[in-house]
Design a protein that fits this description.
The protein is mostly beta strands. The protein has strands at residues 7-12, 25-30, 35-39, 45-49, 63-66, 72-77, 80-85, 94-97, 99-100, 103-104, 109-114, 120-125, 129-134, 140-145, 151-156, 162-167, 172-177, 184-189. Strands 1-2-3-4 form a four-stranded antiparallel β-sheet, with no helix packed on it. Strands 5-6-7-8 form a four-stranded antiparallel β-sheet, with no helix packed on it.
Length: 204
């Protein structure tokens, strides 16, 4: 699966099953390239999504995340999330600004995650913030602040009540109780001394 330049992000199709080859694919985004859909078995290019900016220039997504049912692909850009219908490759998409009238979330949207139980998704930004948005219209619900560096990974707990976030050059993984938005429930220390995107997972 050759990409022409630095890979920004990738994500697997959530309903993927080896028993159904048509569901076995992943999405990837790289610098100066559109979003590609790749066959997971053979590495063939299946489809392309082409995001364009206000100057009608191809722009690269910094983050990717399928909805849990796989029907849509959410893509992060500077102060913007674009939503593509998975079944309709091409350039048509819904645009969801994260900043309007100087309110909301600034910076590049570096990662996206969906709540497994609620109609909410989280967008992290290199501006050291995490925004919670309604899935249906993208309305901002709250902005979480507390990281020392740009946030590079977010993950919900299985019940959707907790959100774990980590940033680059940030030694803490923060756990937020979303029943009391804005409050850090606890933090965990780790080693993160570079600008690399450092992933983590939950053992539950």
């Amino acid at each position: 699966m050759p990409e022409g330049d630095t890979i920004y992000d990738y994500c697997w199709y959530p309903p993927m099953s080896s028993l159904a080859p048509e569901t076995c694919f992943l999405a990837s985004s790289s610098r100066d390239n559109p979003i590609h859909i790749w066959d997971a078995f053979y590495g063939d290019l299946r489809a392309t999504f082409r995001p364009y900016n206000h100057l009608d220039e191809l722009t690269s997504a910094h983050s990717l995340c399928f909805t849990p049912d796989g029907t849509q692909l959410f893509c992060g850009f500077e102060k913007m999330v674009r939503v593509f219908e998975t079944s309709r490759p091409g350039r048509d998409c819904e645009k969801r600004p994260t900043l309007a009238k100087k309110q909301g979330q600034t910076g590049i949207i570096s990662c996206i995650a969906f709540s497994p139980e609620h109609d909410v998704y989280a967008c992290a930004s290199y501006s050291k913030t995490v925004g919670l948005y309604s899935r249906d219209k993208g309305t901002v619900l709250t902005i979480l602040q507390g990281h020392q560096g740009g946030v590079t990974h977010v993950i919900f707990s299985p019940d959707g009540n907790l959100l774990y976030t980590g940033g680059r050059k940030d030694p803490e993984i923060l756990c937020w109780d979303l029943r009391q938005p804005g409050k850090v429930l606890f933090s965990m220390l780790r080693s993160a001394t570079t600008n690399q995107r450092m992933y983590f997972d939950l053992d539950v």
